Please model this.
Amino acid sequence: MAGYPRSAPVLVPFKGGVDVVSPSMGAAPGTLRFSLNYESAIGGGYERIGGIERFDGRPRPSDAAYVVLTLAEPVVNIAIGDTLLGVTSAAEGLVFRVDGDKIALTRVAGSFAQEAVVEKITSAAVGTVTDEDTAVLDFDDNALQEAAANVYRLDILAVPGSGPVRGLAVLHDAVYAWRNAADGLSMVIHKATPAGWTAVPLFQRIAFAGGSSAYADGGTLTQGGATASIKRVVLTSGLWSASSASGYFVIGAVTGGVFAPGAAAGGGACSLTSAVSAITLAPGGQVSTVVHNFGGQAQTTRLYGCDGVNPEFEFDGEVLVPIDTGMTSVRATRVNAHKQRLFFAYLGSVQHSAAGEPYVWSTVIGAGELAVGDDITDLISVGGSAVDAAMMVMTRNSVHVLYGSGPSTWNLAPLSLTVGGAKGSAKDIGGVVALDWPGFAKYPATQAFGNFLSRSMSTQVTPIVAGHDCACSVFVQTTNRYRVFFTDGTAVCGFPSGESFEWMPIDYGTQILHALNAEIAGQSRTFYADIDGWVYEADRGRNFDGREIESGFITQPLAMGGPMVRKQFRYTEFEVENPSACALKIGAEFIDGEEEPQEAQELDARNHGIGLLYSMTNWSEAYWGAGVRLHKRLPTEGQGVAVSLVVHGKSSSELPHKLRYALVVHTPRRLAR
Model:
C-alpha cells in the first residue's frame, strides 16, 4: 500500500442480498440497502440479470452471428437490408451496417474469400473483399452483436390473438401458448415452430357405449358410408371384453356422410350415443398444466391441465381431449399428478381420478374427493419423512399435506391453519417455498410431528414483498434462482443460501403472467409470457427485448472496525467477471456518524424503495474489456465512519457481469466525537 503506510484493506464479499430491515450499521457486510436487476450468483457475488428476447420458435436473436467485410474501396450503392453475394464463393449475407469501407453482415451462409461481391437481386457490383473478420473486440463487438440480434428480432411475433397470454407449457421439446382469438370469442392453442406460432386445430367428439371390440388411437370409426380417423379413444367406464365399454372418441373430419346414434364399426365395435360435436375453448381462462405419463411409454407423456373456464383436459401436442370429471358448473383451477392419479382443485375441494386412469372419475373404480375448507391455490408433490412422497394442498390461509397411497390410506393432515401460499407461488426447492401475506415461507421435511416445518424466509425484505399477490413463479435449477412475479409487474429473485434466502428485486419492464423452466433437447430453458401477448425466453441476449437494462445497487454502510472510528477511505478494488465488455459507474457515500446516509433519488416510478444517486459528484466510470475475471481499482476517496458502495449500469448491448467482491482500502484516523 505505497503512500499509505497505515492503510488497511478490508475484503467485502458481495453476498446476502437486500436487507431493508436490519439497522444500517448492524447489517452484514456485503448486504444491500437497495438493488435493482442484480441477482445472487452461484459461487458468491451479484450478477446483473440476464436479458429476455421474444420467442416464437424462429431463430433466436441471441444466436445471431456476424462478419465484417473490408472492401478495397469505400462502399457505395449498398443499403441496410440488402443481400450480398460472393461471386466466387457464392457466400451470402444480409447487410445490417455500413461504415466507410466496411460492411457488417448477418444471416451469413458460407465464407467470403478475397473476391468480388455483388448485390444479390440486381447483380450490381459492390466491390472486392480484402478482409473478412468474425471477431471484433470489446465494445465494438457489443454493438455489432446487438445490431445483428435486432435483425432476427424483427421476424419474431407475439402469439396471435387478443389480450394477455393465457397459458404456457413445454411438451416433447415444443413450446405451446394459449391466447384468446382476435375476435375474443374463443381461446386458441399455438405451437412455436421454425415458421413462428402455428394454431393447433381442435377436433370433434362423439360418445359411445356398449363397446365390445376395442378401437385404437389412429384407427378408423365407420357407420354406413360415414368415416373418420380416431385421434383418441377415451374409455371412462366398463370393459371391452364385457361388451360394456363406454366413453367417447376424439375424431377428425367426417367424410362420406354423418354419424348418428346407433351401431358403429371400423376398427372395433360399439354403439354411438350422441351426435358429433366440435371441441372448442371458451375465452378467458388461466391455464395451469402438469406433464405426466400414465401409460409408461414415451409417446404417452402428455400435458394435463385446467383453466377455470373450460373442461379439464389432456393434450399430447396434437390432440386436445376434454376430460369429463363429473363437474360442470365449477371448473378446476389447479392440477397435479400424484401417486399415478390425476388431481384437480375445485374451489375448496380436491378431486382425483382412478389410479393410472386419468379419464376415469367414478368413485366406484377408485376416484375420490377431499375438502380443505378454503379455495385451493396450489397442489404440489413433495418428499416427506413418513411416506416416500406426499402432496401439499395450499390455500391462501392454510396448508394441508396429503399422505397415503390411495383412498383407503389417504390422510389429509393440516400443517398450518394460519400460514398459506399465494396461487402460483409454490415451488419445491429442497422444501416447498411459497408466498404468504407477510412474505415467503418454506416447508422443509422434518422428523418433527407433521413431517414438515414452516420457516419464514424473507424477513430481511418484508417491506418489499408483504401484501403482494403472485402472478406466477419459476425455479431455475441451473442457476439456483427462484423468481416470483407479482401482479403489479414487479418481481423478486430468491437465492437459497444455507438455511435462508438472498432476495433481490428485479424488473423486466413488462407484466409477466406465466413463467416456466423446462429441458428442451437436453438444455435448461426458461420462458415467460406477458400481458401483451408476447412470449420471451429468459436469460438470453443482452437486453430486455431491445430495451436497455438498468441495474445497480447500494451496499449497507461498511464500518470496517467499528462505527466509532473515523476513517480516510482511499480506493476500492472490484473483482469482475464479464463475458463481454462492460461499463459501470462506481461511487461511494460516506457516513460521518452524526446522520443517517442521505436518501437517494428514485430511479423511476417502479422503483423498490430508494434509488441510485444521480446527484453524486464522486462517480468514477469503469470500463472492462471482455475477459474471464478482471480487477479494477477505482478511487473512492472521502472521510467518514463508514462507506456505502454504489454501482450503476445501463446498457442494451452488454452480457451479464458478476461482481464478486470489493477490497476497500482505508486509513483509521480517530474516534468520532
Q: What stands out?
A: The longest helix spans residues 138-153. Confidence is low (pLDDT under 50) at residues 1-5, 594-617. The first strand starts at residue 8 and ends at 13. Residues 57 and 192 are 4 Å apart (CA to CA).
